[in-house]
Amino acid sequence: MSTSPLDYSQDPPRSQYDLIIRKDKPFNAEPRIQDLVKHYITPEQFMFVRSHGPVPMHLNDSHIITVQGGENTKEFTVGQLKTQFKKYHVMMAMQCAGNRRDGLHRVKHTKGVIWGAAAVGNTTFAGCRLRDVLHAVGVTSFKNDLHVAFESVEQCEETPCYGSSIPLCKALDEFGDVLLAYEMNGKPLTRDHGYPLRVVVPGYIGARSVKYLKSIIVQDHESTSYFQQRDYKLLPANVSCEAEAEEYWCKVPAIGEFNVQSFVCSPSHEEEDTIKASGIMTAQGYALSGGGRGIQRVDVSNDNGETWQVANLYQPTLTTSAHIWGWCLWTLKLEYKGYPIVSRAVDSAGNVQQEYPVWNYRGVLNNSWRTVNL
């Protein structure tokens, strides 16, 4: 654990955001849920910010990243990564592992920032492929027991710096689209989103997309970082405190790909009187799945789950990409019946969203129905 107070006095200004602050220091914020589905590509104004400590303010294109693969080690500046490697683009849903933690917290105490359902966004990133950089240090093939560990310069409350890892097979996958990104939505990364360089791992929880990258190491074990070994794991439902969690940290795997899920973002509670008067409402929401799986169907119910209607989907990459990393937006006109609206999603692999909540001590990735009580 960090033993000295962290200095947040140099954090960047944040007037450009229209976000709800969930924690001030470190800065963690998300948009209002109705704003989230106004755009298929989430603008910076509405993109959630997840921080574990003060924002590094001393980094630029001369910042050095060390890449170690076996016996070979090379150093690259951010500027060299921009000029020596081909630039690629990927559109992906970036989701905090704690998205929707507030629903869990209402039922059982959870640890971490109490996020609503908007700690997610759909953005385009640009940068060089991690695969190409690993090839440059001689890493061209993988064994299933190898991992790629990332370390950040970000100081954290829990540990001196942030770290995480992914399987090497994901990093080297020609269609895995893992990038060392320096742009978001066609512009240089902002400091809150990882300037000058971050990892982006499509289809995985955001905790694996390490910001302010300092080093990349191919090794025969997962990252030993606090955030890989003692955080971002799903513990058994009976675990209710830190002492009980001790038995399970080494037994439970770290979360990688996220599950299929959907959420009803509108109508809002403020629209209740108008909806009652007209008798008709338009429900809107998002759906997404990990692992490159697109959304096949979203079902919506306005009669307490007795009957379901199929929503209209907007997922333009469904027929143009080998893998679907972006989210799906959905809409459906419904008759007002006085019941909560609920939704459930099915992905392209046939995985069906869980219809009942999964409670656990960490409070991550709740995939229960989302209801709007009108």
From TrEMBL:
Domain Moybdenum cofactor oxidoreductase dimerisation: 254-372
Oxidoreductase found in the keyword field: yes
GO terms, molecular function: heme binding; molybdenum ion binding; molybdopterin cofactor binding; sulfite oxidase activity
InterPro entries linked to this entry: Ig_E-set, MoCF_OxRdtse_dimer, Mopterin_OxRdtase_euk, OxRdtase_Mopterin-bd_dom, OxRdtase_Mopterin-bd_sf
Oxidoreductase molybdopterin-binding domain location: 52-226
The protein's required cofactors: Mo-molybdopterin
Protein name as catalogued: Sulfite oxidase
Source organism per UniProt: Phascolomyces articulosus
Lineage, highest ranks first: Eukaryota, Fungi, Fungi incertae sedis, Mucoromycota, Mucoromycotina
